[in-house]
């Protein structure tokens, strides 16, 4: 949102000779801004990332001297652009929900985009499933177009975005950079492999509500729910180990491109503790953006 404030100026002394004063000898005093201070012409304009441009203003005489009104305006801070990565079952989904709830970013999950194509039975979905069944990365040409269009969406551009699970290779990261998508922060969740395998194998989906359960850590509330739970086709021990092997092969190449903006987080802690680490990094980033904006405005 844009913001404006008013600033009134009054003479240093009401008893001094007005001829001895110039505009440089006025002392500023802040006054509350209300709609009664201004009358705007039809030429007034608002832009999504800027405050109110100068318009026709009406002088507001103070009770004890001459004054005039000055509008103070500043640009809006750029939205956050965040990537979050980690091995399968490292907790990306849980943390993305917490992040978007607090910061209002648009959550974009490459995996969800792919699974939607598979569920729809599209040609891209059929090709993607063949690779995923083998624990291999889906080719860039299948994924990059979907991700690009989502990042270019008006809500992503206005609110900022949280890209979950993409890029997973250096070629994907380079493709994003060529399209002009550069994150402010790259969050990496680190979890030991034995914990990841346990998390994946015990994971179950409720097809009615879409809620994710875990047979050990987050069991279903009732027998009725338990009876309808399903296991994702790639959530078996054999397939998750293939996916982890692929992940470890590619993660270092991706990190090398974002090493200056990477924050590594201990993903084996409780979800509250993991989010506390992430929240601290995002809070600092947002303050830096606002601080840079204030410096430019000054």
Automatic annotation (TrEMBL):
PROSITE patterns: ADENYLATE_KINASE. Keywords: ATP-binding, Chloroplast, Kinase, Nucleotide-binding, Plastid, Transferase. It is an enzyme of class 2 (transferase). Residues 13-25 have a biased composition (Low complexity). Pfam families: ADK. The keyword Transmembrane helix does not apply. Its main location: plastid. Its EC number is 2.7.4.3. Residues 1-28 are annotated as: Disordered. Belongs to the adenylate kinase family. Monomer. This is adenylate kinase. It comes from Nicotiana attenuata (Coyote tobacco).
